[in-house]
Design a protein that fits this description.
Layout: E1 2-7, E2 27-28, E3 31-32, H1 33-43, E4 48-53, H2 57-64, E5 73-78, H3 85-91, E6 101-105, E7 108-110, H4 114-124, E8 128-134, E9 142-146, E10 152-157, E11 168-176, H5 192-202, E12 207-211, E13 216-218, H6 222-234, E14 245-247, E15 250-252, E16 257-258, E17 263-264, E18 268-270, E19 275-276, E20 281-282, E21 286-288, E22 293-294, E23 299-301, E24 304-305, E25 310-311, E26 316-318, E27 321-322, E28 327-328, E29 333-334, E30 339-340, E31 345-346, E32 351-352, E33 357-358, E34 363-364, E35 369-370, E36 385-386, E37 389-393, H7 400-414, E38 419-423, H8 427-442, E39 447-452, H9 455-465, E40 469-475, E41 482-488, H10 497-509, E42 523-524, H11 529-542, E43 545-548, E44 551-554, E45 561-564, E46 570-573, E47 576-580, H12 590-596, E48 600-604, H13 615-632, E49 636-641, E50 646-650, E51 656-657, H14 659-671, E52 678-682, H15 688-695, E53 699-703, H16 707-716, E54 720-724, E55 730-732, E56 736-739, H17 741-755, H18 759-764, E57 770-777, H19 780-793, E58 799-800, E59 805-810, E60 813-819, E61 825-832, ...
Parallel strand pairs: 1-4, 1-6, 4-5, 8-12, 15-18, 16-19, 17-20, 18-21, 19-22, 20-23, 21-24, 22-25, 23-26, 24-27, 25-28, 26-29, 27-30, 28-31, 29-32, 30-33, 31-34, 32-35, 38-39, 38-40, 39-42, 47-48, 47-49, 52-53, 52-54
Antiparallel strand pairs: 2-3, 6-11, 7-13, 8-11, 9-10, 14-15, 36-37, 37-41, 40-41, 43-44, 45-46, 49-50, 50-51, 54-55, 55-56, 57-61, 58-59, 59-60, 60-61
Length: 855
């Protein structure tokens, strides 16, 4: 059988290790990863090997040659131009694959029994067999579910935290029959996991998953790279270290000289022709490459040191990586997670802080304390994007330097403008927005700076300017020491995951081109941003047309509302509402808007201060709002939050309406006048939404439980009149595809007026709503296992896998188990037709999730 090693990737997340070296040539245990793969293939009698190459192909070609030195036959297929993807590059060599063949990723370290996998493939009569492995944290891999016969049922490539329904992942090792390549189009970029395998499932081709024992590691990050080296020394992987042992688990190759006073602590590996100086301490899990000179009194604590490195006396290296040809002078301290690039020189008594990356060919002055990565300029985060853009501690994790580079990465990805920049009122957001403007114009992007602006207004303005996108900075409402930087596309919709990954890739590579001085982008301050929004707002609120028994009605209020009561009479009424602005800037526009549609307002907490209110302050404001509504006998009260996106309502009796109750209330108010239309809600929403929709012949579309998914689903589908969730954020696509509490309030008021109902009456008209939520702590590495065991345990129950695992426990009762996208938590939602059984279900599954973590 032939084997194909896919070795074309650029290894973005391993930079600067891969700045001048393809990822398969990165050494683990002093041998390139690709060489370990070749040795494994040879062990299982694969001696006819084809490498598919793209990034720096010469390094692999020069190392393996024609394969004679390794006892194999090697051929190379080099992709020119744009990469073709995993399936596309194999399709390009289909004329060399005339029988069953094996495909393996060139950047994985493994000792999986390939012979057993091939035998499984033959016995099953499979067209495509995926070699699978169970892992603790499946977020970075393709998650797979198989049935009792090992036939693949479903998989998701690199799922979000809430999409994890198994801990069984795709290793990137495939056994394929040549005919599956007929489904791949020659010359087009296509991927095995995203394109070919879903198509095979659709065509009912036999595709199986072989769950392998043994070791497998996708070397996808710097921390994982170090761990792979440690695992090799620990014997967790069945690979020959290929060096003699001078003491148990101390491997030293030929030509190396070690001073008698050196202290060597197993396990360690030292390459050939090295020199280890006097009184040097080499602690466990240290790996030293060939031709390395270590001077006296050096302390090495778990570093991975590549060939041809010089380390001066009295230096200390802790859990770092030092690339080839680097020079470390005397008394240098390199701390955990730091990377010293190829040909880099670190001056004496310099200190390299944790996680700092020095790109190749750099010089660090003597005595310098390096706290930021050279070229990049800031510490590299593990990931960039979370549930709401990029979030972190203000001025600690999200610094001006970080914001500059993040904005430059966004601009370099877009390549053209204009890009809008907006923020909330708080001073830290002002600081970061200025840095964002600098980053964008540094790559030649035109910027329109909206300054302090409610997010719904900024998002609406995108369409009027035909802008390429929007970056918005705001302080977190729940954690006021954190800020979020959020990204929106040309339609005002939160950018898709694919775009997030492009920005992240550009950011991590840190090699986006800064423009010439003459090409620096221009910045302007638009003057009529609020006016555009207000004009369109009033057109929609004043000119809303409803249908009742197919007779059109149009409410065009002047100073007063015309109310059509339930009895059919017509009365004139000027509503009074109480608005709690929660010390946010929506107070600058909302009074004028409501005044123009004849609404009398009483304002609370309209002053803007330097710091946002804390969660407990917002709760006290909400209670104050309820008291004022009752005292003034107002129609309703509303608290505006989340920079103009979120609302909480209070009815005329002082009842606070939020969460699932608010979602159901708004849905009933809107759908009553919009029969036979569609509403979009998350999979976690109460079943009361279906009962409300059934009243009016409407359709419910459920999507993943994230605000981004609600927005994109609402924008994508036709005939949608409302999108919303239990957090008090609502989308009215007739106006814009973004969350807008101001417009939502206007819609609620106008529909209630037309219907002749009060808010309290609308709540009283709702169907039964029994919905409960609990949360269980669950470490990230156990989430995948918990979800897989839940699926396996409930094979005989109706299950939905839209987001998390949704299980029908009994008629009209369901449980949703949903991993949190940000925190090490699993949320359990219980919904049903009676309180007792719903509560019992919640208790049972809360305990079950805790138990499954320990299985």
């Amino acid at each position: 059988m032939k084997a194909v090693i896919m070795a074309g990737g650029s290894g973005t997340r391993l930079r600067p290790l891969t700045s001048s070296l393809p990822k398969p040539m990165v050494p683990v245990g002093n041998k390139p990863i690709a060489e370990h793969i070749v040795n494994l293939l040879k062990q299982h009698n694969f001696k006819d090997i084809i490498f598919t190459l793209h990034y720096l192909p010469e390094a692999i070609c020069d190392h393996f040659g024609d394969g004679t030195e390794f006892g194999i036959k090697v051929e190379y297929a080099i992709e020119e131009g744009s990469p073709l993807g995993t399936a596309g590059c194999v399709k390009a060599i289909q004329d060399k694959l005339d029988s069953t063949f094996l495909v393996v990723s060139g950047d994985s370290l493994t000792d999986i029994d390939l012979t057993a996998a091939v035998k499984f493939h033959k016995e099953k009569g499979s067209k495509a067999t995926l070699v699978l492995k169970r892992v603790e944290n499946p977020l970075e891999y393709g998650v797979v579910i198989t049935d009792a016969d090992a036939k693949i049922q479903r998989f998701v490539e690199k799922p979000g935290p809430s999409e994890v329904f198994s801990d069984t992942v795709n290793t990137g090792i495939y056994i394929l029959e040549p005919e599956v390549l007929l489904y791949v189009i020659l010359g087009r970029e296509q991927d095995f996991s995203n394109d070919l395998f879903p198509l095979l499932l659709l065509r009912n081709e036999p595709i199986y998953g072989y769950v392998a024992d043994g070791y497998w590691c996708d070397v996808g990050s710097l921390s994982v790279y170090r761990q792979a080296n440690y695992d090799l020394l620990d014997g967790k992987i069945n690979i020959d270290v290929d060096a003699p042992q001078i003491q148990p688990r101390i491997w030293v190759k030929e030509g190396t000289q070690i001073d008698a006073s050196a202290n060597l602590q197993a396990p360690i590996l030292i390459g050939k022709n090295c020199r280890i100086g006097a009184k040097t301490i080499i602690e466990p899990y240290t790996i030293i490459g060939d031709n390395v000179l270590v001077q006296e009194k050096v302390t090495l604590k778990r570093p991975v040191i590549w060939p041809n490195v010089y380390i001066g006396k009295q230096s200390t290296l802790c859990a770092c990586v030092v690339c080839n040809n680097a020079t470390i002078h005397n008394s240098v301290e390199i701390l955990e997670g730091a990377i010293i690039g190829t040909n880099t020189a670190v001056g004496q008594e310099a200190k390299i802080s944790p996680d700092v990356r020095l790109w190749p060919d750099k010089t660090v002055d003597s005595g310098a304390h390096v706290i930021e990565s050279v070229i990049w300029g800031t510490r590299a985060p593990r990931t960039l994007f979370g549930a709401h853009g990029v979030k972190g501690l203000a001025n600690v994790e999200i610094t001006p330097e970080f914001a500059v580079n993040l904005a430059a990465a966004f601009g370099a990805t877009l390549k053209s403008g204009p890009v809008l920049v907006s923020r909330d009122f708080w001073q830290v957001s002002q600081m970061l927005s200025r840095a964002i403007v600098s980053g964008l114009i540094s790559v030649g992007i035109e910027v329109q700076n909206l300054e302090s602006m409610p997010l719904p207004i900024a998002r609406y303005y995108i369409k009027t300017q035909r802008a390429s996108g929007l970056m918005h900075v705001r302080v977190s409402q729940r954690e006021t020491n954190k800020v979020s930087i959020e990204f929106f596309d040309s339609q005002g919709i939160a950018i898709a995951k694919s775009m997030e990954r492009k920005i992240e890739t550009t950011f991590f590579r840190a090699d986006f081109p800064r423009c010439l001085p003459a090409d620096v982008g221009n910045m302007t301050y638009p003057s009529r941003v609020r006016e555009y929004y207000m004009d369109e707002f009033l057109k929609h609120v004043k000119g809303q047309v409803f249908e009742e028994d197919k007779v059109p009605f149009c409410i065009v209020p002047g100073l007063n509302y015309t109310r059509v009561t339930k009895s059919g009479s017509v009365s004139t009424h000027a509503p009074k509402i109480v608005i709690d602005y929660a010390m946010a800037e929506t107070g600058a526009i909302l009074p004028d808007l409501l005044g123009q549609v004849g609404i009398e307002t009483v304002v609370l907490n309209s002053s803007i201060r330097n710091l946002p209110p804390k969660p407990e302050e917002r709760l006290a404001m909400r209670k104050q709002l309820a008291d004022v509504v009752k005292a003034l006998k107002a129609e309703l009260g509303v608290q505006i939050g989340r920079n103009g996106e979120q609302m909480t309502l209070v009815d005329e009796t002082g009842e606070i309406i939020r969460g699932e109750l608010l979602l159901a209330t708004v849905a009933d108010i809107i759908l009553k006048d919009k029969p036979k239309r569609t509403i979009v809600v998350p999979v976690s929403a109460s079943s009361a939404i279906e009962r409300i929709a059934a009243r009016y012949g409407c359709k419910v579309v459920r999507c993943k439980a994230s605000e981004t998914e609600i927005g994109t689903t609402t924008a994508r589908l036709e005939d949608v009149v409302l999108g919303g969730s239990a957090n008090g954020c609502f989308i009215f696509p007739e106006f814009q595809n973004g969350y807008d509490a101001m417009f939502a309030l206007g819609q609620v008021l106008e529909h209630l007026t037309f219907q002749g109902r009060t808010l309290h009456e609308a709540v009283a008209d709702l169907p039964l709503l029994i919905h409960q939520v609990d949360s269980v702590h669950c470490p990230w590495e156990r989430k995948g296992k918990v979800m897989r065991l839940l699926v396996e345990k409930h094979q005989d129950h109706p299950i939905e896998l839209i987001d998390g695992v949704k299980i029908q426990t009994r008629p009209e009762h369901w449980i949703l188990v949903l991993p949190d996208a940000v925190e090490p938590l699993v949320h359990i939602y219980a919904d049903g037709a009676d309180f007792e059984n719903t509560r019992a279900d919640l208790n049972e599954y809360t305990q079950l999730v805790s138990y499954l973590q320990k299985v």
